[in-house]
Structure formats: structure tokens, C-alpha cells
Queue: 3 jobs
Job 1
Amino acid sequence: MFFKLKFLFLICFVFLNLYGNEANGTKKSETQKITKEWIKSKPKGHIRDFYLWRYLDHNSSESEVIWALSEASNANHKIFFKYTKKAKDDGTNFALECLNMPTNKLIETDGSCINIGLSILEATDLKGEKLATVIEKIKQDNLKKTEKLQIINSDIPFESLINSSSNEIFFGTFSEVGKNFRVQYFNAELPKELIVKLQNDKVKFKQFLKTTITTPQITTLQQSFFDVNTTKLDFDDVFFLAMNGVKHDRNDVALKYLEVAFKKAYHKFDQDNVLFWQYRLTNDKRFLTSLADSWDINIYSVLAKDELKLEIKNAVYDFNETTGYKFADANNIDVNTTSFDTKDPFAWRAVVTDVKDLNSTKMEKYRSIFNTKETLGHLTVLEEKYNKQKISYFPNPFSEYIKDYSIHRQALINALARQESRFVQASLSSSYAMGVMQIMPFLSEILAKELNEPYDILNQFDAKTNIRYANQHLNYLEQKLPNVLFVSYAYNGGIGFTNRMLQSGLFKKGPHEPFLSMELVNYDESKKYGKKVLLNYLIYFNKLSSEKITLSTLLEKISSPYLD
């Protein structure tokens, strides 16, 4: 079979990253007929791959799976899962058997099966003679894995790590052993010459730096980074070094790195983040004034404006009143007078492609197309781009669907939707999160069960349905988590991730909390996401409620439920 060799190495990826099998028991009814011809007519990319996956849900013979694999733009795990279930392939079946085998049975097999099925993390539980036997079995076939196993099985793993044969082995071992092993065996200071050598691999050094600094228990290893040459490092790296200085009460180190970080920052948000910490560590009002003058609306510039009693001037909430723009039917959300199909991901993709070079002529064209309340999200995305992000829009296009919720819940839904999709109903991420609220298919199917209603995955492109499902999910998250920031982390990264993060030691009481913990969230997307949702929530709540709140008030309530 043509795909055997091409995809066998991805089998591990399939099983480790699979979101879940099709949920059981929920009746499905896919309203849109998806055919080969229809799929072939669409441009390649993750949207087309999504519909390939949907096609396979109804046409999953071996030949259909092979066709879908040949058409897919990326090695999507959902399509591969179909392949592994349907393909009659001895090599694939062997790999799956090894991957699913318990460790105690796996280590009794031959080296080829152990190579496929045994991860470095699982090997850390073996040690001693058992691991030595494993090493003997695989050493002829996998030299890199053999060296990693030898490091973790040595008497002093840290010494073996720093003397490893290459940066690849160092970084691979450090990342693959897992947090507990790192804390127990790798918490020691690195030689300076090794740090210089490690920087030759910029991408892996970045991940190594982040993993080290965001792990609370590796304090000795963190002290290796008080004096690092920053020439090869980018903004994120240097900023992490600064936060490492703050974490260890070394303000001199932090300020040194912050000065460099400001020069390396490209985005205004990042510059404002640096200014905030420079002001916090020095109390120099010049930093506060510069921060308050920022045109970017973010938690740091808003905190500065609050302290100096200044208003936010470039946030637009009431789009019609502020701009004089008139919708075709601004009062009736159910009437769509535009010809634009708001539920078609390909239609929005075509717009995004077209406006890569957005000019006044195109802007006028789209103002005439996105002329209803339900297309306000589409319009404000383009308006912000046209104004080079100097104006921030906070629309409420689906107010009719959330009007019966509490002010808090209305503000939270709008805050999340603005960050997730900018209120574009047909938004579809590369991981297949769908709709205004970007709900993953496995979750929307679970929520359909909870709501006791038939499930059609394509209905998630309908804003009313998608928002109702998100509201159901938020009922659960807000029962488990005490504030908007933690709920936003869970909405983005999952409640398991959020609980593990809180249990690790973040958001405890301290002189720089909750700000320092907000910088040390180890998942970059969730870290940025939480800050932005918190700011969105503040603006929406104050627009919707007669009772105003400040950002400082919101931040004062943030502390881990697991720690004093």
C-alpha cells in the first residue's frame, strides 16, 4: 500500500494526540451533503481537511480513507485514525499493538516493538537492571534513544545529561523525561560554556528555557540564567529571563533583561508588558506615563490609565453611534440582508485572503457586504486591520441570544467570543474548533447530550446554537473555578491543564502576584489568551452594567484555590 511507509511514523502522534473517538449514543444528522466532487472543488487547507474528515464519517471504507489521505493538506490525526482502523496492513497493526501494550509486557518483547511502544517518560519508571536489559535490546537499532535511556539509567543523570553527545540528545532527554524526573535529577546549575553551546539550537533552547523557568521546583537550574548572552535570543526568551530574575528577587537581573527585551519587542503589547514590569520594579513614573500613552488596549496600559485617572479613548463599543455607520437592519438580528453566507468557512477564508492587501476600495466593498448586525464581527475585524489596529472594537452582535443571561455571563461570553473568533460564525481552527465560541467537536457532542438534543456538527456554525453550547460549558467551568482568568485558561487549554497549573504552585500570595504567575503560565497560547479575555471582560462588563468595576478589582480576586 502506497501510504504504509509514509504514515507509519505518525502512528504515535495519532494515539497521543487523538481528541477522542466518536462519542456514543448521540444521534447525528449532518444536514450538508458532502461529496467527493464538492470537496475537490474547494481550496486546499485545514478547512477542506475538516470536510474530508466529515466525509469519512459517512464513507469509511479502506479505499475512501486512502483517497482522503491523498487529498489531505496536513497529517490530520482524525483522518489517520480512520486509516489505522480501516487499513489492512501488517506493519500498522504491529505498531498499534506495541503502542497499546502495557510496559511490563512490552519490555519482554523484542527491540523493534520496544522502540515503537516505549517512551522515554515510561522508561523513567524502570531504572536499574530492567532498563539496562531494554537498552541492550534496542542499542543496535536506535542509537539516539539508547543514549537517552543510558542518561536516565546512570548513577548521576545530570552529569550524563550535560555530557551528552549533542544538543539534540540534551534537549530531547530533558523534555521527554517529564516534570517529576526533571525536578528530582536535573535541578543543578549548568556550566556557562554549555549554555553557549545550547543556544546554537534556537528553537529547542527557547523551549528548554521556558520549561525550566515555568517549573517552580527547579530553582537551582533556574539560577544558571542570571547572566546569559542575549544576542541570539528573541523577545520571548529575554522576557522569560527577566521574569526568572523577578522570581528569584534579583531585580538587577530582571531590569537588565527588561531593557534588552524592550528593544527586541515588535508588538506594542510586548512593549507595554515590559514597561509595566519596569515601572513595577523601579516605581519610576516615566514608565507609567509611557504605558498610559499606549494606543494598544491591554491589561497593562489599562492599569496605567486607571492609576493616572485617564480614560480609554480608542475602544469602540457602540459601533453605529461612534462611526455613524448604518446597518441594513440594526434592530433585528434574525434578518440577514447580505448575500454573504455567514455559515460557510470557505466564504470567510476567501475574504481573509482577499484583504491581505486591504485598501480603501476593498474596505468600501466589504462595508456594503457586511451590513447587518450578525456580520458586525466580520466588519470590525476588517476595520481594525484597515486602521492598523489603532482602534479596538468591542461589538455585541449576538445580544439577542444572550439577553436573558446575567450581566456577568453576557460579558464573559462576549469576552471569549471576541478572543476566539472575533464573532465570525464560520470560524474553523486548524484543530477544528468551530464557530463563534470555537468549540471542539468532541466537546460539542458531549454538550449536545447534556442538552438532550440531536447533534449535527455543522450546526456549530450557527451562532445561536454555538453560544448556547458554550453557555452550557461555562456552567460547568464556573462551578469548578473561582474567577474569570482561570475560567479563560480552562476554556482555552482545558480544565485539566488549568488544575495542574494551579496545583503546581502558581498564583500563591506574593509581592508580584498575580502578575508574575500570569507570566509563568507554561502554555503560551493560554497565557496570552487569559490576559486578553480578562481585558475584554472588563470592557464588556462596564458597558453592560450600571455598576462599574476596575481591572485592579478583578486582579485582586485572583489566587489559586489550592494554595494559601
Note: DSSP finds 36 helices and two strands in the chain.
Job 2
Amino acid sequence: MSKHDCAMVVAAQPEAVEAGAAILRAGGNAVDAAIACGLVAGVVDPQMCGIAGFGNLQVYLPDKDIHRCIDFHAKSPLATRADQWADIVVGETRDGFGFVLEGQVNDLGYQAIATPGSLKAYFEAQTTWGEKDWDEIVAPAIKWAEKGFVVRPHVAGWWVEGASMGRTDNLERLRYSATGREIYFRSDGSVKRVGDVVANKDLAETLRLVASDGADVFYTGQLAERIAEDIAAHGGLMNDRDLADYRTTHNDPIRSIYRGLEVATNHPPGGGVMVLEMLNVLEQFDLTAMGHNSIEYVRTVTEAMKRATSDKDAYVGDPAHFDVPLEKLISKAHAAEHAASIQAGERASVERLAYEPRDTTHVCVVDENGNAASMTHSLGMPSGVITDGLGFMFNGCMAVFDPRPGNADSLAPGKSRFSSLCPTMVFRGDGELSHVLGAPGGTQIAMGVTQVLLNSIDFDMNMLEAVSAPRVSGTSSAIDVSNGIPWAVTDALEGDGYEVIRSPRTHDFAWVHGIRINDGRLDGGADPAADGVVQAV
């Protein structure tokens, strides 16, 4: 393993990146920095992630021969019944990721909350693999909660996005709780805007308890008691047993080879299986010869995406509740069948899924000793619930379960729903780490991460170029393109009979953040569609 000329932190929030960089300068390792970064992100991007959320973390510590993933998806409460909402179904959200119920009980409020895993995972990872004391890792988040953060464009944009796809208006999420009404709105009742300050003294106090007592205070201690009492008083499902029984899942990454490089990513119910399947298919095409974002390139890549999406819809769920044929899905033989179909000109058909909520964030860290961490963490669509005095918003993960009994994603006790989270690392043939990346962006996460890998591996882009190049997506029968894709390309595809949907955004389809390592030198990229930064240490 080689040492690097510097260390690097990349994430979607400048305040979070600075916290991670400061921990590295103070002698912490990549895990210390990633968790400090993640905790600050929960303060300064409080509807994207937080201690009451979920996610997946990949950790690589070569000196200790450790390469592991911690899966911390939120789990439906143990009191969940398969038919509890069967008679109040209004319909499915237009994007196919979630359901609309009478009173929006699965989307806003106490019944929307699934048992969170984020804080337990942060604490397990840092105390197992980090070098610093836990309270030092939590300190930057306490500081930002106490003094307040300045509202950034990305935060303000989400707040005023309005209702979409049949879901609750985001402003309703912000004003649902007394704390939300107090800290997120101006005195005249309007939501705070870019440049305004949001301080959260209650969250600072909660984080002080977490700093002194660890994750146990949230799952079995005084915070657990206050959470369970509040949820019970408001008709929610999650209780103290759910919190006490919650466990993360530790496993080795799943792996495949792409053009001689080993790609390591996460197990279902995360989205890593889609990344490996798409790369296996695309390895059988000379993408470089096609030309980047050419007509044939866009057609080929999106056809691979459509096939992976159909496989995901049919075969991928929570492995504890659903038999996922993982070996088949990431096999070269399965990919060869898809590739042959694409080469024959066959067009995949997918029931339109379009966008799922993009309320997620990501952090990548590589330290000077070659250790790396990649973590995607989220609240899903946040529930709006903030227990009085605690300061943090709970996830709203119950909204994505199918309220109709008998389906793969139907409600069941203690179940996780598929998510596209896919923190990913790539290694050269000599075992040296070459890429660390991941993204928020709902259904589009796997699509964004895969394209950034193609940009870097097949087209030799540095990480900033790779995350900034215009992207496309194939999560439906149509081809979705960002506004940076040339009209000459989309005109030709439409002339060939494809439905093409052009996004108004120049940069779209996930917000990818990553680090590339080349001969011991690090270069990083923060997706220009978000507020993120790269900081070398």
C-alpha cells in the first residue's frame, strides 16, 4: 500500500467538509473524518440526513486488512402489519417510489417514522475503526448547531420546491413541529431564505448527550425514553423495543471486475448490485470508440440502465425478507445476455419510475495512509417530526413501503425497503485503491455513479471532470437527459423512435462526489449541482 501526497474530503456541504478536514489535521483517520463530516451534515443539511436517518458506509483500512460495509437502512417498526393501510390507499406517487394514502399518514407525521440506524452506525464505525475519541468527533456538529449555519442555495431550493408527485409540500414538513416552526421560519411566517441563519440549541443539547454517552443514549437511554413517549402520544408505530432491538448489518462488499479493475460496493437492499450489473453489461462494448455522450453511447448506456432497473424491480429487496438472486444478477453470463440483446437493437421497456426523492447526501474521505471511507446517508423524505426539545427531524421511510399486501415491497415488521444508495470503491490489478465515490439522488444514484466511473475509466477524466460531465438516465422506457446533452444527439435518438425527456437542469441525475487516486496523487470532484466542495489536507 502506498502513502499519498495528501488527504482529501469531498461532500455536499462546505461546513461538513471543513469538519472532516480538521479531524484529519488533528491526527484522525478516514473513518474519523467521514463520521465527523456526516454528523455536521445532519446539522447544516437537516432534511437530507441526520442521526434519525439511514444509509450505508464502506470502509477500507489496508494496514489493518479491513474492507467492510455497514448497512444501516431504517426498519419498519415491529408493530407494522401488512394490511394496516390497505383500505386508505389513494394511489402510487407518479415516480413509482412511494404511495399516497388518505391523510398522508405514511408521509408526514409520526406514522411515517421507521426505526433509524444512522447514529448506531456512526458510533460503531468510529469507535471500532477510528483513532480519535468519540466526543472529539461529535464536537464540530455541536458547534454548528449552537452557533447556527447560513442557509445555502441547495437547502433553500429544497425547502421551496413545493409538493411533488402526490407527496407532502416540503414547507409542511418544516412547519409540522413546534421546533420546525421556530427555527426554519422568519418572524413574518415566511420560510428562511439563502443567507439567513438557522441555529438549533435543542440539537446542540442532544448532541452533547450523544458525545458523552455514545449511541446507547439514543437506543436504550434517556433519549430513547423521550422518543418512545412522544411517538406513542401521537399514534406512531415505533417504540422503545424497536430502538433497543435495532441492529446494523456488517458484511464484505460485493465485487466485480470492470476492464481489469475491481469494483467493490454494497449489498442489497442498497443499490450496488445495479452498478455492478450495468458495468458488466457495458464492459462488452467499446465505449471509448463510440465517443462520450454520442448517439450510440447514450443509447447503449441507457439500454443497460433500463435492464438493470427491470432486474432491480423484479429481484432486489431486503434479503432478510426476500430471496435476492445476487450471484446471478452480478454474473458475467447474465450481463452477456443483456449485452447481446442491446447489440441486436432490442429496446427494453420499463414502467416509468422517473425520479424518487433525493433527500440524501454523501461523503468521501481518503487519508494520507491510504485509508478510505465512502458513506451515503439520508432521511428519505423526512417525516417532519421533531420531538420537543431534541432538535432533530426523523426519517419518513414508511412512505416507500407498498400498503397493498402480497408484494415484494409490502409492509412487514422489521423490514428495510430497497434504496439506490451505493458507496463504491475501485481498485487496480495490483490492489491499489483508485476511486472512492458515491452520491445522493434517489433512483438516479446508481445511474450517476456508474456514469462517473465510465467517465474516469473509459475516458480518462479526472474526478472533477467526471462528476461535471452531462449525464443521462434510463429508469423508464424513455431516455432522460440533462440539459447539457447536445440537441443533435437527442434529435437523432428521437428520429430513431426513442422518447427523450430533457431535464431543465444542466447537471442532473444524482449528485456524485468522489476522489480519484493516481500514482499517489489525489483529485476530487463535488457535483456542481449541489453546494459541495473538495478540500485537500
Note: The two ends are 19 Å apart (CA to CA).
Job 3
Amino acid sequence: MTNRKNAFSINRRQSLAFMGAAGLAAIIPGFGRGGAANAQTDPTGQVIVGFSQEPTVFNPHLPHIEVDEGVYYAVFDPLIDVDPDGNFFPLLAVEVPTQANGGISEDGKTWTVKLRDDVTWHDGTPFTAEDVKFTLELLVNPDFRSWRRNGHELITEINVISDTEISWTMERSFAPYASILATTFIVPRHAFEGVDPNSAPFNNSPIGTGPFKWQNRVAGDHIELVANPDYFGDGPYLERLVLKYIPDLTVLYTQFRSGDVDAVGVQWITPDHYAEASTLPGRVVDIAGSATFESLTFNLQRPQFQDRAVREALYYAIDKQSIIDALYYGVPKPTETYMPREYAYFNPDLPQHEFSIERANEILDEAGWERGDDGIRAKDGVRLSFTNSTTAGNHLREQAQQFLQQTFAEVGAEMTISNLPPAVMWGDYWMMSEFDTVIVGLNCFAGPDPDTSDYFRSTSSPATGGSGQNTWVYNNPEVDELLVEGASLMAQEERLPIYRRIQEIMREDLPFLPIFQYAVVRGKKEGLEGYAANINNRIDTWDVRSWKWS
């Protein structure tokens, strides 16, 4: 890869370590092989990564969840990426575009990107600027089920200058765009010629430029990727990468303990196994910060949840601390917001949650939700009854559901548990808002930028014809306006009050009930190098090009 001297640091808004997670390492040794190129070596060995959820979406621009990105980072490349310290560095681009190097105009509207000339797709076709143009246009194609139009929809003109240079003009300056580009994987134009991109063969047999090539998939079991011998950068060092699907978290830990998996990914090692895991010989176990938060999320299309009093009462009825202490061994810390406390934009002045069955009942009484003969409240013919879903086999969430079911019953709310296999749970059931309520972990950010338009903007709900991750179907005009304003500003001091105000509104509206910010227990075998935590990315394989056995 090109030398990391081309990387530039954004105004750092995060520390690496989760502040409340036992004070573990804030510096990750060995990071950096994604930059200056070293001598290429023949790939050797394999790594088996255990995921608790099954990757099922292989076109990175169709609606997907975090676990699918475990495949994307291995198979594809973005133009630029971001490291654990919040520094952008180039991948398919020769350098990170900035105003200083002329890559971004003074008004922030015109971007010019110089591309590498030594990149080929896995099928041998040369990578060119036409592929970048195609990708940016695909994301805003109204006939394509795009997972993200935010930012890309501001592009008014794209100009392919040459095979190795492209420029585009935007309606306005958009501060989050560098972070969005860092999670925009470039796809090959030629793979979509003459076919519907929603159903192209590519979507089941992806072709990328990344360090690993698609080999095969055994649905419900694993995905096998093999080294790309023509990769343009340093690496890959591994001959094979296997992403193994293990939905039961206890079984996932057992296979890590026995050595059947070399590293644990999504959902990681559950805190109830942390004490034992940290003593296992030949294993390296640590706690890393995460921008993900756990919440009970509402589908605001459901009539019972359109009354804010119901959402507020149910929040009072959640015994957060008991859930954290009893199930998570006190590892994560309770939160009132989607914003990680490591970010400078974190609002420390939000009202603090209180567990109070008495107050919850008072709120529902005052709002006119009356108990029936069966003890379940109702108002205007709508019963306070709903299902709650999460990933089947996630035993901690399943136990948390028992806590919630019990305390909700005490306030006259009937919660029925209806859990589903991950592939079903996080498919249309989640993306198209077919649920009533869900227990889910969410990271609302694209890299280190505080913009959350994909999640909170009213036009970002797939269930209402939008593109994004607003699966709770949240609609607040003030939030819409603030998101536009915040993204138009560059200076942190100007953006700070906007994003703190958004947190105040979310805490008031409660489209979701925040429970805790993640502190994830990561585990790998000794000798596996390059496996680095990154709070700015959503998946552990973000740096898989650097993984190797020592």
C-alpha cells in the first residue's frame, strides 16, 4: 500500500479504550501494516473466526447488518479507511483527499481522488475510475435497494478524468463524507452490466479487490475465503479465512476454549465467561471499547408505542443495573444515549435513568392506560401488549428478556418473547420494521464522525420507502434539521452543541430505551498478530489483510 505519510488525522474525538472497562490497553501493538508496504510473503495457514450471527448479504450496498461487513472487509476495499486512532489512510486511493493536498476544494464541494494503477478485480479485470463512478451512482439509483444514500445523494456531477483519477461535485460541504467513504466498498462495474443489481449473480458470488477471494459458502455453517495472490497491498499473510457461524454464545465460547475457533467475532465472549477465558492457556483475552450500545428498540408504527407516555413508563420499568450486574458481571456501563462516552460529542448532562415501578404506573395511569380484568392495560381499544425479539441462542439477551417481561408485567404491559434465527431476525424482519420491539446492539456511526442521519433522519426508514437504518421509523422535524445543519459544519466547536442537542431530543422522545454501552470481551489464540480493536469500525475483520501467525 502507499506510505502512511499520506494519512491525515481528523480532530480526534475518541479514546480507544472503554473508560469503564478495567482500564485495559489504549495502544494496540502491531497496528500499521495497512500502511507502508513490506516485502510480500507467501500466505500460510488459516484463521477460523467465530461469528454468532450468519453473514447473508454479500453485496455491500444492499441493506445489511454488522456481521455482513465481516465479509466485506476481506473481499472489498474502500477508497480510504480509518484506523483505531481516528486517522484516515488510503487503500484504493493513492492519498487521502484533503484541502491541503488539493483533493478537496476550499468550499468543500469538489473532491478529486487519485487512484492506484496496480489494482485488479479478483477475476483479473483492471480496477479503474469507472468502477468508482458506478459504485457512487449505484448507491443513489432509485431502482436499487441501497442501504445508504446519505451523503452520496449530495453528489451532483461525477467526472472520470482518467482511469486513475475521478472528481465529483456536491451540493454543499458535507463534513461526514470522509467517514462515509471509509465504509463505501467499491464494486466492479462489469459485474452488473445487463443485469438487475438487486438480483445480480454478483450478490451471491462477490468479486472484489480485497485481500481475500470468495471461495464457497455452506449456508448455516461457514464461509470460506482464500488469499488473493494479486493483492495490491501488504498482505494477505493467511492462505485461508473461514467465517464460522455459531449462533449459541455458550457454544461459541466453548469452541474458542477448545481451539476450534482461532478468534471470536460478533457478540464476542460473553462477560459471564470472562473470568475463565482470561486464564485459558494459549489465549489472549481483553476488553475493548465499542461504539455499540444495547437497547430495547420500538417500532413506532405500532399504535401502543406512538404514545410517549408508554415509552417513558417502560423505561422506568427497566432494571438496568440488575441486568448489567446479574447477566453481564458489571462489565458494561449504563448509558442514556447512543453516543459513546469516548466521543467529545457525548452529552454528560442527560437525565439519569431511574428504575421505579411506582413511577411507571403513575405515568400510565395519568395517560389513561387502564388495566383490564387480565391486568393488561389498554387505551382507546389498543392493548399494551407486544412481542419482543432478538437473536435466538444469545443467552444473555434471552435472560434479559425474562427480567423485562417480569417488570413490564408489574406495570400492566404484556411482553411476549418471540426470538428468531439471526438470518431471519436481521433480515426484512428488522430492516423493514416488521417487529414490535427488539433487543439489539447498534453502532449508529460511519467511522469517527458524529453524524447519525442513516439512523435518525425521517427519510432513512426502509419501511416507509427510504434508505438507511431508521428501523424504528422515527420522525422528528427538529432532528432532521439539526442533522442537516451539523453535517454542513466543519469545526468541532460549532458542531458540538448540535449533536448534544440531538441527544437531548432522543432522550426525551425515547424511540429506543438505551441500556448500556458495549465493552466487548475479545479473544484470540496466542500468535495471531494484526487482530486489532478499532472503535471506528463495526467489525473485527476490518484489518484482516494484516492478520498472520507469528
Note: The CA atoms of residues 461 and 473 lie 6 Å apart.
